Write the structure tokens for this entry.
Amino acid sequence: MTTTTSSAPTIDVHAHVLLPEIEEAVAGHPGLAEARALDARRNGPAALAVNGPMVGARVPKLTDAAVRLTAMDAQGVDIQLVSPSPSHYHYWAEPQLAEKVCRLANEGTAAHCAQAPDRLHGLGLVPLQHPDLAVGLLDHALDQGLRGVEISSHAPSSPAIGQEGPGRELSDPAYEAFWSRAEETGALVFLHPFGCSLDERLDQWYLSNTVGQPTENAVALSHLIFSGVLDRHPGLKLIAAHGGGYLPTHIGRSDHAWRARPDARGCEREPSSYLKQLYFDSLAHDPQVLRELLRAVGPERVLLGSDFPFDMGTDDPLGALRAADLPDPDFHSVRGGNAAALLNLV
């Protein structure tokens, strides 16, 4: 069901919460130092010098529900779908610590949203590095009243837990039980990359984010499409952050490969057809790209997103949406009608 009327609430599906209890839980673990060293190599010193003060200035919006609500009012946002800061993934953590991190994330996000249950809905975490724990922790998130979970684009390898090599992609068969459970329960899965596997090639000019995030989105979505995950789980409710990255507006190359090459035939249909099984936030930073996103995936598949309150988001998500000059029904669908239907608020 899609709600297109102007009476639908304005819903931002891409907003974050910072949970200090998670950082307290991982403090002092050797794997944390290794992860931070990798993050430093990937981002470079200039980016790290900016990131700390940037996040510090936003801590009240990330932690205080009253401050969040005031900011939402100023933006004209009625409802936020709140997910943990991707810095909380800690995919280097061994099983016991990983379970603790996810439980803290689930419980902390639920407690934050409970301060304004009519305006804040939440997502939790599952540990992609331990697929055998993912189903149980998805259930834990749902038991807290959360709407689903947030995941990154892949689970990188981590020497801290004895994993070498490239890590796990979302196409890995080890995640099949997780996808099945998410589909069965109707849980939302918010795909939000953290870090980029291109590493030091992107360590200047904040390329780690500006190029890295859209690349990671495109790679992760391609794994889900070409591997047949979306064939096996057509009811999966997956939202891709950052407009899905480069993939939706460059999907023609994937379609051509599917038609031209037998080794690209892992899925049943042309890759572009699967875009209409997915959801995408509107955070494209370019009105022309946003219009093209709607053309590629359909106006019923795009949801308002701001990346609240980080600097690579937008402080005026409605203004960014208006700049795309969409037909009125499409504008209201993206503004809140689509998300209201997805969250069963209508």
About this structure: The chain has a mean pLDDT of 95. The radius of gyration is 19 Å.
